[in-house]
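Sanity check record (used in CI):
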Amino acid sequence: MDTRALLSLVTVADTASFSRAAARLGFTQSAVSQHVAGLERSAGTLLLTRRPAVVPTPAGLEYLRHARAILAHEQAAHAAVARATGRDAEAPVTVAVTPAAEHLVAAAGPLAAVLVLDTTDAASALESGRADLAVVDGVAAPGDPLPGSSPDVAVRLVRESPVAVLLPADHPLSGRPGLDLTSLTEARWLDTSRVACSTAELASVARLALRRGTAYTGTTPAVVASLVRAGHGLAGAPLTAAVPDGLALVPVVAPRLVYRVEVRIHSTARAAVRLAADGVREAAGP
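Expected output for LysR family transcriptional regulator:
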């Protein structure tokens, strides 16, 4: 199957320009225009508006969703063939890692390329062949793997620790032996999504509507600690995390949740990838 037309359509949509898409792909602008026009004839409808801006139409958005999936499957197929035939044996290892686990990939080897992505994108990068190895983290029930793994991917546990609540040391709940998240739905939480045990994850996995206030979209634990210390809201954290001055870490006893870090590789991964996965696990310590 010739997927160049689909690639042209996706690139035009991503760059909002036929000329920029042509430059990125190394095609002529005329070829890109012909690719998109051919797809539109086949679909029987306009997929992209041209003026005043290049924007997907409602039909185009649906078409693009399927086009991206087809291109991802094609990329995954090429990667699978490369693994099966050994053609990737000498290629450098590419690691996809979530922001909270980025510090673990230093042991993956000096030749490794590192893609820092959110959990869903990191898992997708492994599935599509963009990455040889994925290091992902998230909140789950004890013993449960994180979602988003396919049958041909081997999941190796790196670390699992109880979830806790980070709060100011003078907070009325700081001296408790444990906390029930269901009793904290009216408390003010930081609105975090890219740090370990983020509020978004806690709310999703525990199926609770946590009241969120100040938003932090970064990945630095020290910033989270400063915001909690300043009274902007509570935050989740692994119970094993270091506790900064002026703060307390109280374990969550209900519902039972753990913070989990996993290494994922294809079951047919080459030796260099397996060695990199072992390096990540060793970097995490006991």
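The chain has eight helices and twelve strands. If this sentence no longer matches the regenerated tokens, the check is flagged for review.
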